[in-house]
Amino acid sequence: MNQPRPARINMVANTTLALQDADLQGALNHALVRFRRLRTDAAAEVPEWEALRDLAGEIKAHALAYLDVHLTQLESRIVALGGTVHWASDAVEARRIIADLVRTRGVRRVVKSKSMTTEEIHLNSALEAAGVAVVETDLGEYVLQLADEPPSHIIAPTIHKSVAAVSRLFSEKLGAPPLDDPEDLNRVARKALRTEFLAADMGITGVNFAIAETGTLVVVENEGNARLTTTRPRIHVAVMGIEKVLPRLADLGVLLRVLARSATGQRASVYVSMITGPRRPGESDGPEELHLVILDNGRTRLLADPDLRDSLRCIRCGACLNVCPVYERAGGHAYETVYSGPIGSVISPVLVGMPRASDLPFASTLCGACAEVCPVKIDLPRMLLELRARAVRAGFTGWVDRLFARGWTFAMSGPGRLRVVAGLGRLVQRLLVRRGRIERLPYPFAGWTAHRTAPPLAAHAFRDWWRSR
Amino acid sequence: MSRDQVLGRVRAALQPVHGATAPQSLGGWPSLPGPQVFTDPVSLFAERARAVGATVDLVASIDEAARQSAAWCATRAVRRAVVWNVASLAPVRDRLMADGIDMISPLLVPTRNWVDAVATADAGITSAEWGIAETGTLVLASGPDQPRLASLLPPAHLVVLRADRILPDLPALFARSDPLPSALTLITGPSRSADIGLVPVFGAHGPMAVAILVVTG
User: Fold this and answer.
1) If we measure between CA atoms, which residue out of B162, B143, B151, B163 comes closest to residue B190?
2) How far is CA A428 from CA A399, A433, A441, A445, in A?
3) Are the Cβ atoms of A143 and B203 closer than 8 angstroms?
4) In Å, what is the CA distance from A141 to each residue of A134, A333, B49?
């Protein structure tokens, strides 16, 4: 597929738009305050929470350090169980593998359960192009598919949508009467989707964890749509990034505990499906064919990068999004990438390239809240700083930023220089100070005072004051 | 080939970590904590399962469980139920059949019509391999007599669990070396979603009600 190269993501412009959207601001604030409280309470219930985070991080780090060994073990276990393993070095290959399966198996209807990895490879449009009906079955993803919108949060893809908006959508697309009770809306979707499940030939899911020693694929969810997707259709295709593998079954006990509490504040997610091979002789349900697609798509670039390798520990719980002050204002769509929030700002510059994503590492206040909640202890602020330095070195920052940074470096590298520059500043600011504040800075620094005033330089430098006391 | 390409990139990326030679042993594994110890795992299981919306009743014997099952089916107006074909559920099955409930089991329905049959059931009745006290979780194993859809398609799920099968937590479950079935399913409460307006609702896709009978005798 020869697509034009997408333009650079303009995070400032996107966020400016998001800030003007009062509905979005209200919905984000409502959702994130709630998610933060749920996570905090769930973590506080576990006395050894900090030790558990350390352990979860160590398990993932160790799994990554021997990734090749674990991936080949996983492959041989799944093949021994009667499954098939496919390797995809990028999104194009992954789409081709699945499109080939669809064609050779005569598949006409596909049901999918929520998977960020299949969003990443733009699977749906490829399958639709191959003439297959694809239905998203996670309630939130189903709403978004009807609305033709991308998800805006890893765990809660529809947090930007109000009940009224969903009701309008169901009336328009499903012919449902206007409903204002989420329970009624849920029943409409359940009924429509049940028909899809019963008619589908193929179910496609992501993978939360894959256990190398047993060949088990683990899918975590609350609704039951992933269970239906992996049980009813005759073919199950699971798509996973290379980083999802865990060496031992015992490791799962640690990671499931931190995942549910970090993601939704639950002690346990409602359903954890542990799938070990296809349907066995004598069984009356479960898929006859099981396919696992193992995807690289830029992840080995992260693995080869000592500064960013630990970002592959991520278990996609979404906790870092929920605490991020920038995400709370900007919303997921502003990032224009599949993975938004702090973790997205770290991995996207590598996955989609710095030319496109150079704005993202700057979409952070570096407050450190993300690192404090991360259940696998990824040092996100340090990685964001590192990526900022790379963006600067590669010339992706604007001339104003560079000019300012150069000037700052000059002024701060000697006491004499600082004195001269500050003295000049005091002269210039006489033209700007009104009622003790700088209300408007001239071009090119006007952005600084677009939404706030700036404090002026003090009338006397500290050192002069100190000397004169 | 993509396999060699991906694995080649992984090995190249890990070269500085491993040194020149491939790792022969995976030493230095993080050691995992043992299971927690709870003074009364059965009560904790009941409390935690109720906290997520399941109902839990403690019964003294499997015959008592059969009586409770019949009462549960009567209040829910269950006319057709899919039931696992396992020996431990025989008294329950016999009792419900005597009550005139249409029983579907994998032995009675040809595989081709199996899904359609289950889709019309008012309730699914299964046993559980294990319970997990810390989270109120049920552990169900699939098998020829233990179809997965029984706990998934019907609007209500009745589960019989022996009290001595309640483990403290997931580490205790995963420390066991039992061979894994094609599907081991951990179930914590009824199916739920909060995707519309952040309002939690039961019965998103799976059962709206989960009733657990814990057999203590």
Assistant:
1) B151
2) 22, 10, 11, 14
3) no
4) 12, 15, 28
Q: Residue B30: which of A55, A163, A194 has the nearest Cβ?
A: A55
> What is the Cα A21 distance to its own chain's centre?
22
Q: State the burial class of residue A231 (Cβ atoms within 10 Å of its Cβ: 0-12, 13-18, 19+).
A: buried
Please tell me the distance from the alpha carbon of residue A164 to that of residue A183, in angstroms, as a whole number.
13
Cβ contacts of B87 within 8 Å, gap of 6 or more: none
Of B14, B170, B188, the CB nearest to A257: B170
> CA distances (Å), A340 to each of A209, A245, A364, B81, in order?
21, 23, 12, 45
Whole-angstrom CA distances from A164 to A178, A180, A184, A282, B128 are: 9, 7, 12, 47, 40
Distance (Å, whole) CA A379 – CA A366:
11
Amino acid, res. A134 = V
Q: Which residues of B touch A285 (CB under 8 A)?
A: 114-115, 142, 147-149
Residue at token pair 């700002």: A345
Are A89 and A153 members of one domain?
A: yes
Distance separating alpha carbons of residues B148 and B183, to the nearest angstrom: 8
- ω into A4 cis (within 30 of 0): no
Count of residues in chain B: 217
Domain extent, residue A323, equals 1-45+317-397
Q: Could you tell me which chain A residue has the CA closest to the CA of B23?
A: A66
The reply to whether A23 and A105 lie within a common domain is no
Q: How many Cβ atoms from other residues are within 10 Å of residue A214's Cβ?
A: 21
Do A407 and A385 lie in one domain? The reply is no
CA–CA dist A407, A401 (Å, integer): 10
pLDDT tens across A314-361, in order? Answer: 999 999 999 999 999 999 999 999 999 999 999 999 999 999 999 999
Contact B7 A163 (CB under 8 A): no
pLDDT digits (tens, 9 = 90+) for A233-279: 999 999 999 999 999 999 999 999 999 999 999 999 999 999 999 99
Contact at 8 Å (CB) between A449 and A438?
A: yes
Dihedral in degrees, nearest 10, Cα atoms A59, A60, A61, A67: 110
Nearest to A190 among B2, B180, B205 (CB): B205
Q: Which residues are bridge partners to A67 per DSSP?
A: none
H or E segment to which residue B170 belongs: helix B170-174
Q: Specify the pTM.
A: 0.94
Whether residue A274 and residue B196 make contact (CB cut-off 8 A), yes or no, is no
Last residue of a domain, one of A397, A414, A441: A397
Q: Strand pairing partners for A220?
A: A272
Q: Which CATH architecture has domain B37-215?
A: 3-Layer(aba) Sandwich (3.40)
Other C-beta atoms closer than 10 Å to the C-beta of B42 total: 18
Q: Which residues of B touch A303 (CB under 8 A)?
A: 9-10, 13-14
Asked whether the beta carbons of residue A253 and residue B169 sit closer than 8 angstroms, the reply is yes
